[in-house]
Amino acid sequence: MFEKLKEKLGLGKKEEPAPTGSERGTSINVVASSKDFDDLVGNLKISLIEADVALPVADRISSVLLKKLEEKTIRLKGDRSAVLKEAVGSTIREIATVQPLDLVEMASKKSPFVIMFVGMNGTGKTTSIAKLAELFKSKGFYVVIAAADTFRAGAIEQIALHGERIGVRVVKHQAGGDPAAVTFDAVKHASRVDKSVVLIDTAGRMQNNKNLLEEMKKIKRISNPDLIILTLDALSGTDVLNQAKLFDEAVGIGGYIITKIDADAKGGSIISLLAETKKPILFVGTGQTYSDIIPFSLDWYLGRLLG
Ligand SMILES: Nc1nc2c(ncn2[C@@H]2O[C@H](COP(=O)(O)OP(=O)(O)OP(=O)(O)O)[C@@H](O)[C@H]2O)c(=O)[nH]1
Ligand SMILES: [Mg+2]
Questions:
Q1: CA nearest to 98, candidates 252, 250, 292, 270
Q2: Ligand 1 pocket, residue 123 CB under 6 Å
C-alpha cells in the first residue's frame, strides 16, 4: 500500500549521511542552498503528481514545504531524511486535515439512521454496504439494507446474498422497479425497531450520467437520508475529484469511503480529495472480505506513508 509514493518521496530509504558543512552540536543543513531546496521540492512535486496528487494540491504542498524546509535549516538538528519526513508530514497535515465524522456515534443518536451510498459503477458501494452492515450489526444495531439498485442485472441478488450471509434484513422489489419505493419501504420497516440503521444500495450506472444523478436525487427526496456517502475507487487516481464534484453537486456528499487501497501503490488521491473538498474520509476498504474495512485517520495514513 502506497509503496510507490513512499519510494518516490525517498522516505522509505535508510538514513543518508548528513551533508557536508555540518558540525557536531550545531544545526545541520538539510541541503546547502536555496537552489538545492528548489530542486528537492521540485522533484518531490513531480513525485506527488506521479502518485495521483492533483496539480493544484501538489503546488500547494510544494510551496508550504519549501517554506518549512527553509525555516528548519536554521532551527532543526538532525539528518536529512528525518528533517524531510517531519516537514512532509506536517505539510500534509496542514493541507489535508478535515473535521472527522464518527459514523457509529452519529447513528446511535437517531433511529432509524439512514445512509445512502452513491458512486460510479464498480467503485465498491455494495461491498462497502455489506462491510458496514456487519460492523453495525456487531455494535448492536438492527440493520436494514434497501436494494435500490434495480437497474443493473443481478444487483438485487448480489446484495440479498450479502444480507443472508451477514444475517441482516434486505428490503427488495423486482428488478426494474422504482428504487425510491424500495427505500421508502426499507425506512418504514426500520422505523418499527429501536436503534436501527438503513443502508441504501444504489445503482452506479444508468443509461447515462444525467439519468443516474436524477435517480439519486429522487431516492434522496423520498428517503431523506441522514448522510450520503460517496464510494471512490482509489485506483481511479485524480478522477476521484471529478466524481466527488459531480455527486456533491447533485445530492450533497457528507463523506467518502475509499475502496481498494490494498491495490493502490500510489495513495495520492487521498491527499487530493481531503485537500480539495475538505470532506472526511470515513473508512478505507482494504480487501474483499467483510472485515476488510478500517476507519480512516490522517495519522494512520501518514504512518503508512512516512513510518
Ligand atoms: N481489493 C478490493 N476489492 C474491492 C474493495 N471493495 C470492493 N471491491 C471489489 O470491487 C468490485 C466491485 O464492487 P461492488 O461493491 O460490486 O461495486 P459497486 O459500486 O456496487 O458496483 P455497481 O453495483 O456495478 O455500481 C467487487 O469485485 C468487489 O469485491 C476493496 O476495498 N478492495
Ligand atoms: Mg452495487
A1: 270
A2: yes
Which cell is 216 given? 439519486
In this structure, which residue's CA is closest to atom 24 in ligand 1? 121
Hey, CA dihedral for 14, 38, 51, 256, is it positive or negative? positive
Q: Assess whether 181 and 144 both reside in one domain.
A: yes
The reply to whether ligand 1 has any atom less than 6 angstroms from the CB of 149 is yes
Same domain, 132 and 18: no
Q: Which of 96, 118, 151 is the last residue of a domain?
A: 96
Q: Is 42 helix (H, G, I), strand (E, B) or coil?
A: helix
pLDDT tens profile 286-301 = 999 999 999 999 999 8
For 79-105, how does the pLDDT look when each residue is reduced to its tens digit (9 = 90+)?
677 777 888 899 999 999 999 999 999
- Give me the amino acid identity at 266: K
pTM: 0.91
Q: How many residues does the chain have?
A: 307
Query: Per-residue confidence at 20, pLDDT binned at 50, 70, 90?
Result: very low
